[in-house]
Model the fold of this input.
Amino acid sequence: MTKLDSNLTNPFSAARLRPGTIDFVFEHGRNLAQLVDALEANQWRGEITGLHGTGKSTLLAALMPALEARGRIVKPVTLAAGQRSLPRGFLNSVRLTAGLGVAVVDGVEQLSAWNRLRLKRLCKVYAAGLLVASHRSAGLPGIYRTTIDVPRAWKVVEQLQHAFAPRVRISDLVERLTQRNGNLREALFDLYDLYEERNRGGK
Amino acid sequence: MASVGEAIFFAVMLVVGVVGIVIGIARLVVPEWRANHTFAEHTCTIVEGRVVEVQGEKGVLYRPEIKIEYEVEGVTYSPSTFDVHHTPLGSRDEAQAVVDRFPNGATCPCWYDPADPSIAVLVRGYQWWIWPALLVPVSFIAIGLGGLVYTALYWGKSVERRAAAARQVSAAELFDLAAAADPRFPCIPSCSEITSSPGTRLAYRLPLVESPGWTLFGLLAASIAWNGAVSVFVIMAVRSVLRGSPDWLMMLFIVPFLGVGVALVAVFARHLRHTAGIGPTLLEISDHPLLPGRNYRLFMSQSGNLTLKSVAIWLICEEEAVFRQGTNARTETREVVRQAVFSASDAVIRPSEALEAECDLFVPADAMHSFRASHNQIQWKLVVCSEVVGWQSFQRSFPLVVRPTGGSDTSTEARP
Amino acid sequence: MNEPEVFIRLDDDGRPYAPGTTLSGEYRLDGVDSANVQAVEVSVLWHSEGKGDEDLAVHEFWRKDAEALGDPRRPERFSTTLPQSPLSYEGQIVKIHWCVRARVIFKRGRDLVAQKVFRLGNVPPARPPVAVKPEENIGVIP
Done:
């Protein structure tokens, strides 16, 4: 827990679930360096796919500093639901990276088919990389498919509960994950309520 | 905090934009302006006209090129020209049509540059495409300049310092609705919507959260628009039948659309009957904003033509939290206070006689005040819930503002 | 040398503050190389916690650059009049926390941050309401 968390009362608060605040937990034998190597081997083009709430945005947030450490200029954008086009100026900013850039697009499936095609084509024309996160394949080389299993989800919960009173048990996590069809984000929101209840009840 | 990388990026964009606009003005705007204002009018002889192919970004373009001859101060000039930009056209036919306007051997007016008589044009005027083209470097300048200003403002600044600066800016926004709320009570919503609406029995009339009138209007507009469009095809189909050659394909095609149109009308009619039958619910209060631990007087009036199985007024406090992460947006509400204020049963309401009631409203002494921020809210409201005999139940919500104790200009007595 | 630390102490430590009253206290630095200090910022702010994105607003902000700081080990006082709202609140899905936050900005190295929480007002924690059917005929039908 950081010093700025010291007055928080619930480890599952929304601010602590943001990508970049939790470390991504890889499957056994996989790590960040392997993903960066795979991206480099594919001319910095790749996609991360996975169902809702399985950690795609968290993995993207972990990858960005690793890409910068390899000398790439990262140009990130997160698309909102229904956002069919890229923000004005985004592709120009990628073009200005003079071949060193990697466009990182979270939620690429929101773009219209035309804008997706345009994004892929222009990144090639500008000699820039393209890393996307999406629920389904966007036609780029697959770098990682995010999934949730109980042991890894429990590691996330342990991270969150570190320095807080441990009121949530693994059985609670299993129950919520099952109810939420494997959507860890929604399960963590449910655990917020459970933690709150137990904190007040002193259980 | 802003970084060196960001500053360099925005500086490069600014430089690119400035260079682009300087080049654009020098090569596009200035020559056109000079051709229209400073070129001298003269007479020339058409020597030869032809269409020249040029390779553009999107393929081959065609430029009309007309060789003319004229004399200025004893010197003969023979440039190939058309307009000041040598504008290419999209098709050979278009370019040929321009060339055909200037037959060989004809004399016609031309305009030459007094600073360099070898430059002349046969047509003048303004090209519309220049100005949108200049928007490109302007956008670079805007992004670069804006970014540099942002970088300068937030260079090395912590999140607390930026939040403190944002607070000063928002207080200066004259027309910002959020800034219209009382500055003595930060993050408490404005009461003006309520205090500007006087009641007939008590001081203020509370506004409805959702007016059934707007729902009705929306349904009516949708019905008219949809059925108006569908009726065009219905008329065409009917005419085809009357002509003796029915268009079965079209009739089959419009059946589902006709179904939707009929459904819209039915929903509107049901809603109209519902609203007209139920009538408006009025709620008035003796004072506003509310304070914890204080007592207030409420007046309710329910009109219509219906029999109420039961009616109740509840005082409710709800927390609302909004979370957005990329494509995932969730809003959650949670009730934290539900207090009974009024109830009655078996009441008959006639069009000429509304159900009227008065009661006391006590705001709990330990109540949290109303709160509104970008992503989180605590909102108080009165909800009138009615169960109607022979109709579906309905409820209507009336927002309230509760302020913290020690901050009010009201004179309502506290409950001992 | 000890690890650098910031200590914040509030006068009347531990008691809830009423809106409109004065919050005062002091901060001091320990184990800090004064030559490396660029500035110290102290803010009195509130932030939200819960199931929504975090909201934050600064009520009072002070900044002292290195030249004005003097000996960083010497306690520096601060004081402000607290606002009427928002009050500290322990809700179900929305909470509001007040704190004094001190941030030491170094010429080299990461910022050092510490905060001290305090309560504004005395609003009790929210509880889920128990649904109770209202008594018949509360109120008067003329």
